[in-house]
Design goal:
Domain EAL: 24-274
Organism: Anoxynatronum sibiricum
Largest sheet: 9 strands, mixed
Helix content: 40-55%
Structural class: alpha/beta
Distance between the termini: 55 Å
Keywords: Coiled coil, Membrane, Transmembrane, Transmembrane helix
Order of helices and strands: HEEHHEHEHHEHEHHEHEEH
Bound molecules: ligand C2E, magnesium ion
Number of strands: 9
Shape: globular
Protein name: ABC transporter substrate binding protein
C-alpha cells in the first residue's frame, strides 16, 4: 500500500516536472521569437505626487506583443537562459526612445524607471550602453531611474556595488524595488547609492490596517532621514492614498490612479491630474 502510493507520488512528481520543463521551453521559444521579430512592447504606469495628484513620472513594464504571459513568468526564464541581457538592452533603448518621442511632441520630460533583474547587473557593457542611448537621444541621465529589487542587493557582491556606483557616476537614479518583501535590512540602505525606496504592495496594504500605521510611518521617516524618497506601490484604495499622503509618502503608483498603459494612451493624459483632494480618482484609471 505504502509502496504503491509512493510510486504514484513519484510518477505524479515526474509528470509535473515534465510540464514545468515544457512550459519553460515554450516560453524560451517565445522570447527568442520576440527578440528576433520585434515582439516586445513597454507599458507605462504613471506615478503621482499625492498633494497635487499630478503625474511626476512613469515605470516602464515589459510585455509580450499579443501574448498574455506576464513578466513574473517570463523574466525568470529569461534570467535562466541569459536572454535577459538582449531583452534588457531592448528595454533601455525603447524607454529612452519613448522619452525622446514625448519630448519631441512638445511634452515636458518626466522621469521613466526601468527594472533590472539580477543577471543584468553582470552585463558589463550595460552602463556604457545606457550612457550611449541617453546621449543619442539627448536625454539627461537624471531622467532615467533604475529599479533593483532587494533580493538582488542581498546577494551583496562587490560587483553589485560597483555596478550601482557606475550608474550613479553617470547620473542615473537608483530605486530600491519591492521593499518589504525580503529581509528589509535597513543597513544596506546606508552604504548603497540609493535615492528612492519603493514600498511593496504588501506594505502599502498595511496602511489599511490601523495597527500598522505607526510602523509604516517610521519606515517613511527613516527613509527620509537617509535622504531617500518614498514611493508606495500597488495603491488601490482611496483610504490607502489618504493615509499614505498623511504619512508623508512622496509618490504613489497603483490601479487607483492608473494601470500600466501603452505609450499612445499615456500621451493624452501625460500632464493631467489623476486624483483630486477628496481622493476620488479622476479619469485615467480603468
Ligand atoms: P515591479 O517592478 O514591482 O512592478 C510592479 C508590478 O505591480 C507590475 O506588474 C504592475 O503592473 C503591478 N501593479 C501596479 N499597480 C498595481 C496595483 O494597484 N495592484 C496590483 N495588484 N498590481 C499592481 P508586472 O508589469 O506584471 O511586472 C511584474 C514584475 O516583473 C515587476 O515588478 C518587475 O520586477 C518585473 N519586470 C517588469 N518589466 C520588467 C523589465 O523590463 N525588466 C525586468 N528585468 N523585469 C521586469
Ligand atoms: Mg519595478
Ligand atoms: Mg515593485
Ligand atoms: Mg515586483
Amino acid at each position: 500500500q505504502v509502496k504503491h502510493s509512493g510510486k504514484n507520488h513519484y510518477m505524479y512528481f515526474q509528470q509535473e516536472m515534465i510540464e514545468v520543463l515544457k512550459e519553460k521551453v515554450e516560453t524560451e521559444r517565445r522570447l527568442t521569437e520576440a527578440l528576433a521579430e520585434d515582439g516586445f512592447r513597454l507599458v507605462y504606469q504613471p506615478q503621482v505626487e499625492p498633494i497635487t495628484g499630478s503625474i511626476v513620472g512613469f515605470e516602464a513594464l515589459l510585455r509580450l506583443k499579443g501574448i498574455a504571459i506576464l513578466p513574473d513568468r517570463f523574466i525568470p526564464v529569461a534570467e535562466e537562459t541569459g536572454q535577459i541581457i538582449p531583452i534588457g538592452r531592448w528595454v533601455v533603448g525603447e524607454a529612452i526612445r519613448q522619452m525622446a518621442s514625448w519630448r519631441d511632441q512638445g511634452l515636458p520630460l518626466k522621469p521613466v524607471a526601468i527594472n533590472l533583474s539580477s543577471k543584468q547587473l553582470s552585463d558589463e557593457g550595460l552602463h556604457g550602453y545606457l550612457q550611449q542611448k541617453l546621449l543619442e537621444k539627448n536625454i539627461p541621465a537624471e531622467y532615467l531611474e533604475v529599479e533593483i529589487t532587494e533580493s538582488v542587493l542581498l546577494e551583496e557582491s562587490t560587483d553589485t556595488t560597483t555596478f550601482l556606483n557606475r550608474l550613479r557616476e553617470i547620473g542615473i537614479r537608483i530605486a530600491l524595488d519591492d521593499f518589504g518583501t525580503g529581509y528589509s535590512s535597513l543597513i544596506y540602505l546606508t552604504y548603497l547609492p540609493i535615492q528612492k525606496i519603493k514600498l511593496d504592495k504588501t506594505l502599502s496594504d498595511r496602511f489599511l490596517k490601523d495597527e500598522s500605521v505607526e510602523v509604516m510611518n517610521s519606515i517613511i521617516t527613516l527613509g527620509h532621514s537617509l535622504n531617500m524618497e518614498i514611493t508606495a506601490e500597488g495603491v488601490e484604495e482611496p483610504e490607502q492614498y489618504r493615509k499614505l499622503k498623511k504619512s508623508g509618502c512622496d509618490f504613489m503608483q497603483g490601479y487607483l490612479f492608473s494601470r500600466p498603459l501603452p505609450a499612445e494612451e499615456v500621451t493624452p493624459i501625460y500632464n493631467s491630474q489623476l486624483i483630486s483632494d477628496n481622493a476620488s480618482p479622476a479619469g485615467a484609471s480603468q
